[in-house]
Amino acid sequence: MKLSHSICFLLLLTLSCASSSALAQDENPQNFVNCINLHSIDISELVYTQQHSNFTQTLLSSINNLRFPKPDTPRPLAIVTPVSESQIQSVIYCSKEQNLEMRIRSGGHSFEGLSYVSALPFVVLDLVKFKNFSFDAATETAWIGSGLTIGELYYNIGKQSNVLGFPAGLWANVGIGGHFSGGGYGMMKRKYGLAADNVEDACLIDANGRILDRKAMGEDWFWAIRGGGGGSFGVVISWKVKLVPVPEIVTVFRVSRTLEQNLTTIFHKFQSVAPKLPKELDIRADIQSILSNASLRADNRTITIGFDSLYLGRANSMFSAVEEYFPELGLVREDCVEVNWLQAMMHFTNLEFSTPPEILLNSTVLPRPAFKSRNDVVQVPIPVQGLEGLWEKMYQIAPQQATLQFTSYGGRMDEIAESALPFPFRAGSLYELNMFVQTETDEAERVEWIRGLGTYLTPYVSQNPRSAYVNYVDLWLGTNNLNGTTSYEQASKWGKRYFRNNFDRLVKIKSVVDPCNFFRHEQSIPVISAGKISLCDP
Ligand SMILES: Cc1cc2nc3c(=O)[nH]c(=O)nc-3n(C[C@H](O)[C@H](O)[C@H](O)COP(=O)(O)OP(=O)(O)OC[C@H]3O[C@@H](n4cnc5c(N)ncnc54)[C@H](O)[C@@H]3O)c2cc1C
Ligand SMILES: *[C@@H]1O[C@H](CO)[C@@H](O)[C@H](O)[C@H]1NC(C)=O
Ligand SMILES: *[C@@H]1O[C@H](CO)[C@@H](O)[C@H](O)[C@H]1NC(C)=O
Ligand SMILES: *[C@@H]1O[C@H](CO)[C@@H](O)[C@H](O)[C@H]1NC(C)=O
Ligand SMILES: *[C@@H]1O[C@H](CO)[C@@H](O)[C@H](O)[C@H]1NC(C)=O
Ligand SMILES: *[C@@H]1O[C@H](CO)[C@@H](O)[C@H](O)[C@H]1NC(C)=O
Ligand SMILES: *[C@@H]1O[C@H](CO)[C@@H](O)[C@H](O)[C@H]1NC(C)=O
Ligand SMILES: *[C@@H]1O[C@H](CO)[C@@H](O)[C@H](O)[C@H]1NC(C)=O
């Protein structure tokens, strides 16, 4: 089916932002429910208030950090799962009318639960039903709904072609809406860059209910939604993506090494070699502490590193590339497994090669941990002494309860200018280091541990500003004030870390396109045009 941008036609429904100001906050969902029933047809079945028998199930359906569903976690007054653009417009309109916050949820993978938790009375706009996938063979593009998961996207692409793919993340349940909004990367970033680098158009609903495509929103706004972080610039309902060529046969390997197998030497080399590999080759690494018979320690523990790799080509040539660039790894030819691209994508989300790909459509297959995470960007390899201290830190936490994830950049990532999109980690950044600890037990202790780990890493990671990836959102970096007025200086604490020099442009765009700051959360981009705020606030 051929789709033009008529997909994103303009609906003339003008909503004003001043209407909210007169009304006090309303914690009873009834006025909100009445409002949307009045403004929308056939929506009542799609609204889940706390009294609804399916409320909890619907809320939990895409909570992907189980640190948040606790008895004292604030819950939305209502969750709405619209099936049409006009229903989304009603949710926006009625949230404003009732002075409620509105959180947008696509896949629910926000590390800090920003899509389904708020300290102020709020509703959740859940895009789970926006799962369109319209492929155009002639241009090798597709219009895709924000409610698709990346696994569903890969599945849909695989059904169309065995020589096309898309460079998004690894974990199949991650939602397109939030993922693309923050950049989004996986095992093909070194060849094709971010997911956001491959977006050609989008369809967005703004705070006034206008439906805008790229042309209608303009290049600044379109720039901001491709990496400036979800929840600040509008509800993106769909994206037009350029699919990328992949070979019919690709190759993967997954191998691990322990301290007793020279992990420290291997990893030290990995840091500088991984960003310089051929673009077709991406190697990522995960480090954990484990129990092992081979341990030389009294507590039987060691450190293990798992290397996961994708090569856009055949096994023999992958093997020779690894031998040439990274002989320290000690890879053998038998480690390299030839599969198709879709199987490789399933493998990276820990599904067996032989599983029917339909499993990617099942949102309950993958585990959902409770966790706290922090992350940094590394620009100079961490010296051996620094690594040895890091292993000591890992021994302070129960085996396999904490993971250090290393995502190497380089290749295509380096060729794109730092200002091309809000995501700033291009040339000069070696890799992203994500620290992750499970908090199902000993939450307080573990959270403190990961705080200390961040402190330990200070001398080894990017500084001025110390940097972080907005899709790995971390509220420890600071938060907006609840009343909606946050200074540029305050928001710079996290804004400069996520976006570096691109932060200022994001603030300018935000101030123009959402002057009343309707789209807000703990770390949304602030509005600075102080003069205009009086139009919106009481
Ligand atoms: C287990 C796991 C694995 C991950 N793996 C990767 C990976 O391999 N690569 C990578 O780059 N990232 C990865 N991430 C991070 C992921 O990209 C972000 O968490 C992303 O924001 C999730 O999008 P979502 O739609 O699932 O999340 P949500 O929680 O629904 O949304 C995240 C944020 O975006 C906003 N938002 C959601 N939808 C929209 C929309 N349609 N329009 C505007 N704003 C919206 C939300 O309000 C929220 O602030 C992973 C996260 C987890 C938990
Ligand atoms: C409740 O949720 C289940 C599973 O998602 C669904 O099958 C059922 O139709 C829902 N019931 C209502 C009344 O929405
Ligand atoms: C996408 O899906 C939504 C929800 O099912 C629907 O309302 C919308 O019209 C669809 N858009 C296209 C272009 O198919
Ligand atoms: C570890 O490295 C040393 C020298 O660097 C080498 O002699 C030894 O064989 C290596 N051990 C393993 C298990 O690879
Ligand atoms: C450790 O040693 C025990 C006893 O020799 C053996 O049964 C077990 O399989 C070993 N575990 C591993 C992980 O090698
Ligand atoms: C370590 O392993 C040895 C041999 O398997 C076992 O006897 C000993 O109890 C273990 N020590 C600890 C602290 O687990
Ligand atoms: C999805 O996966 C779960 C867990 O593996 C399973 O119980 C369920 O039956 C699956 N659903 C479908 C529709 O296959
Ligand atoms: C908003 O909150 C901040 C800090 O909580 C406070 O300094 C500021 O004065 C408040 N602004 C308004 C308009 O209430």
From TrEMBL:
A family per Pfam: BBE
UniProt xrefs under Gene3D superfamilies: 3.30.465.10, 3.40.462.20, Uridine Diphospho-n-acetylenolpyruvylglucosamine Reductase, domain 2 (3.30.43.10)
Required co-factors: FAD
PROSITE patterns tied to this protein: FAD_PCMH (PS51387), PROKAR_LIPOPROTEIN (PS51257)
Family, per entry: Belongs to the oxygen-dependent FAD-linked oxidoreductase family.
SUPFAM superfamilies membership: FAD-binding/transporter-associated domain-like
InterPro entries, per database record: BBE, FAD-bd_PCMH, FAD-bd_PCMH-like_sf, FAD-bd_PCMH_sub1, FAD-bd_PCMH_sub2, Oxid_FAD_bind_N
Keyword terms: FAD, Flavoprotein, Glycoprotein, Signal
Name of the protein in question: Uncharacterized protein
GO molecular function: FAD binding; oxidoreductase activity
Originating species: Daucus carota subsp. sativus (Carrot)
